């Protein structure tokens, strides 16, 4: 044996990012619930002056959950999974420990600065890329630090082969780096033309080109933040928690390359019937449909991993969270391509069906998988069993009810809206004015907001359960091999 | 060359590039099965990297040929 028997995996950075995931999850989802209720009850817009309006809060919600909750979840799982599948402890390299800590603190400062500036109304007006140029530079710095951490750990690994989750983490790193850099190419107006404040900027691209770059970025932000790293998580956590090997490792490799190849071309579907070249629209549409194959490749691979072991679904709520996540991944990767078909898009575009689709994926797939991952990590990181299985079960059902309320109301609202917009009378005049559609949709907005509220309540239960696990739960002597220990 | 021709060439390039990459992807699938059939690789064993991931578990494929060499 080597002299490393006293050595343990170092989870200090993973723990920091776990706290950040909980904090930004609460902030981002709370704002989401507020703006959802604002849609149903517009007077809620006037509660906090300019700081409480829908326009001010919406980028805070999206950035808060994507770049706050989810990125910290991705980083937390990376600092946990990375060490384990490479069989090397971060503690073996003081350099990597410093990089990890620096990564965390620069990340926290950047995201907190993002929260403050977005509240102040400072932004570029590019969806999901609202941060102004000084913060973009900070994002680049923290991303480079993450890259050093990934490749540094790979450099000192013991396990020769990179496990499939590693491929997905690396793809997340490279994909986001490329997308972020190109879409955020901006001209600081003060320094170039003496216009605006020092932190203001305009995009380097204009018109149609700007739209194409923006949606190449926007859709692939979904790919490389909402999909790729979550697949990294499920490929590690589901086999590990269930004790089952991946059903087909070869399928995981093929799906990986399929996903990488196809996803990057699909962004054009955001610009159907717009001024971008027709062939770009057609390509976007076709690639979106082909995207079903690699997406379902991974999802089915995960479901088949449970072959012969479905009893675990009854016994272990973590398996339930993960299988539900995988199922919702299948649902949203079928729904997305359907919406990208030109004729369907003519009805669906700009309607509430779109946020409905996004939330299938984010609440069902991304949210459930991230929470399940943190639940799995907690007993290993804190050497205590999970605080309450019952609470976890209740959380599962409350949140599932919330998700179903969310997407079903948005399906109905979206299709109603689309049909009303295009309805004409016998002379070809539009049958409804815009406000008619708004009036009809209000009950669905109330239902959606309540679904969101249920999900938020579940998230508080998750936070409480983890907090209790960290502080008062029964200590465990040995690290569990597979199923996470939990008190009834 | 006018703008229309450039755009047309771009579109053709795009199609050929797509077909080329699709061929590469399927060749990769063929390669995976062939490598296993010939016995040069056993991809399915890599699942064990996640299942046996304690620091003192033996790596599925060790990076250094032998630990003794290091000492």
Automatic annotation (TrEMBL), chain B:
Protein name: Cytochrome c oxidase, cbb3-type, CcoQ subunit
Pfam family, one: FixQ
NCBIfam families reported in the protein's UniProt record: cbb3_Q_epsi (TIGR02736)
Keywords, in A-Z order: Membrane, Transmembrane, Transmembrane helix
TM segment ranges: 12-33
